[in-house]
Amino acid sequence: MKRRIMELVAFILFVGSLGYIMGTFGNLQLDYISMGQAVIQSGIGLVVFALDTVLINCLGKEGEWL
Predict the structure, then answer these.
(1) Residue 38 falls inside a structural domain
(2) What is the value of pTM for the model shown?
(3) Residues near 12 by beta carbon (within 8 Å), at least 6 away in sequence
């Protein structure tokens, strides 16, 4: 059960971070935000994406990390 919850959290973080990054660059293209705001927002999205990648890698090794 714990593993399934962690997989759901990893999936939600993955989809959410990709949507956040794509939304940031869409807003930048439409001139709704400045370049400085886009750099900060995309940096936040990439950090969440990286943390999700680590979580997915930990889930890939059954029982070794959790």
Answers:
(1) yes
(2) 0.79
(3) none
Q: Is residue 3 part of a domain?
A: no
Structural domain that includes position 47: 17-60
Does 21 map to a domain?
yes
Quote the number of domains for the chain. Answer: 1
d(CA 59, CA 51): 13
pLDDT above 70: residue 65? no
4-56 tens-digit pLDDT: 898 899 999 999 999 999 999 999 999 999 999 999 999 999 999 999 999 88
Angle, CA of 49, 22 and 39, to the nearest 5°? 75
Label residue 26 exposed, middle or buried (CB < 10 Å: 0-12, 13-18, 19+): exposed
